[in-house]
């Protein structure tokens, strides 16, 4: 029996109970929500809306990162009959302001960092939603919405001065979901062979395609959805492998970035030609032959990963062929916001090359005389929201003109042939309206007129500005200044000055776009500034529009900036080169010349897998602990501070000698001693793991054995001083997630005079973002013993002091946290 509304899906979620529904990162930790939790908190949020007098049909803004709280709020709105208005995190402030003015929302649910964008609206912070609604009952008594009621209003990216939102009903979504569920049911008997299924979603939930492939389709399979904000290729691959992901959902641009990353790795090793020859030789061969030939790439992604789902814009034929030749499935779909995402989709086991699939049941598709794709069915939205009110969509006999050109073969497979309407769809799947960009350009000094066209790139396009300039003015500065006023996804990537005194025009003086577009395609235009200014504007204390402006950043701020740039441009940057950058211009050069960096530091997970925890426990209690007592039994002060502490901790201690770890472990409760991951100087571990060739063979062998032993028996991980700091912090979070306490020595080096040195800012970032109690510790008496070169010292001469555990909010300044921890350790 057909569902009446999306609200009924909440009950469907509950049948999966404690199965993981969503995994996402917060700080350096992974957070997991079960299906039961999502359903319960959605119901509690619905009650919260009732208590705040949010009525049926009232609008609620959703603005923030992909997370389980976002999903619960969205479903809670559906239960209550409220209308969700999802907004992209990258939306420009004036765009958000216009949306708020248009829809007159009653409430905003947003991330703390985005709360300023919604003005004086009442706000519920995503990070606090779970604890806020915990007091509410999970019994919903409000009247459930109907199939015709509005579920959400989506304002497509890049809309012009008067935004127009697509009004999507509960029935629109169900019309797309129900045929997919029927198809999935045919394969349900095979589900146990591949469970647990895991999807990695790299699409924003503010877009209907992202919603469909994260909130609706995976749930029909009882799958787990992993959210990730970073689009850095190495991090995406690392997450796929670490989380045992089966399917990655992404826009075509991400598949291109991953392809480039793999090819750069081969280029760095001098094997790119061999790799490409291998691709050519295996073309057309059986899937198993291709899989075996490129098994090392499958190993990099993890053995469970097998498919990409690509949507939002057209996938370049070259990229599709690349991944198919590597024996990965590439599933494409076609749809628009107005069609509630999907119109057609490839069958994962019956694909036709370069096709965007067959029309889904329950909808009709035909081609107009000029090849435009027309769609009809319950999935098609028939209303818009504009000028503060609902408006009916103008349709001819119910057929929706998509503005896209297509072709159909004899089997009914649809092929994308290009765009008809005046909108630029970028490789990132974002809609950019040229009018918005032209308006920004015309406001710049020296710009007489401007036309923006789409420069074709891999089946999609990027904005290219064609400018009429006054004498003495340049196109580059005008484009750079205009980009500062645009949202990130709208940034102009190419430009040039029109070579004549005026554009060719119609009798009514409108520019002849066709002639200008043809000229732009043949000339390409200059590449606009690398655009680090857009990221710098958020994170740097400098003038991002001035290439020679100095970067006023400390070391940790540079680390954060580098992470933001890597994610934004989907590249791997050299931390050594980045640490030496002093100006905006330096950063531009680093981003443009980025290449994947060879892995220097390794973060092994095998010491936490059986049988190593057992071996480590046996070695500690049989060897390490008796040796500690023999060499100098320590006195422990402050053990009472750990009596009521459960779960993993961040242990912060002064650094005296190479045996500090043994004395810290001996001071901890017995059950905790073999569940600790100590951080060790990364450069030292790397030198042991890969000793220099100049050393004798026997010395290199001993170094490698020492590396294996110290890693296996003490579970150490690298914390380098010069590079890969972010990877180390993320790995610390993985240890915490696995139930291991993390031990760090924040001075960064052993003491030279027995005095405490200044703590590095990195410990502040760890303390805030690991979201666990931080325990300050100090070792006294060990420096004097080491200085006297005594092998044995009297019992209790060495003292290990333990302080009160403390929690730091994630919003606290890392430098202030480091200073506070230094003070606490000093005062123990």
Kindly describe this structure:
The protein has 828 residues and is α/β, with parallel strands linked by helices. Strands 2-1-10-9-11-12-13-14-15 form a 9-stranded mixed sheet, with helices on both faces. Strands 28-34-33-29-32-30-31 form a 7-stranded mixed sheet, sandwiched between helices. The longest helix is centred in the C-terminal third of the chain and has 21 residues. The radius of gyration is 29 Å and the shape is globular. The protein has 4 domains: 248 residues, ANL, N-terminal domain (Rossmann fold, 3-Layer(aba) Sandwich), CATH 3.40.50; 95 residues, GMP Synthetase, Chain A, domain 3, CATH 3.30.300.30; 61 residues, Non-ribosomal Peptide Synthetase Peptidyl Carrier Protein, Chain A (Orthogonal Bundle); 222 residues, Glycerol-3-phosphate (1)-acyltransferase. Strand 1 and strand 2 form a beta hairpin. 37% of the residues lie in helices and 20% in strands. The chain contains 29 helices and 34 strands.
How many domain modules?
Answer: 4
Radius of gyration: 29 Å
Would you tell me which CATH topology of the largest domain applies? Rossmann fold
Task: Give the CATH level 1 class of the largest domain.
Answer: Alpha Beta
Q: Can you give the helix content as a percent range?
A: 25-40%
Q: In total, how many beta strands?
A: 34
Structural class by sheet pairing and helices? alpha/beta
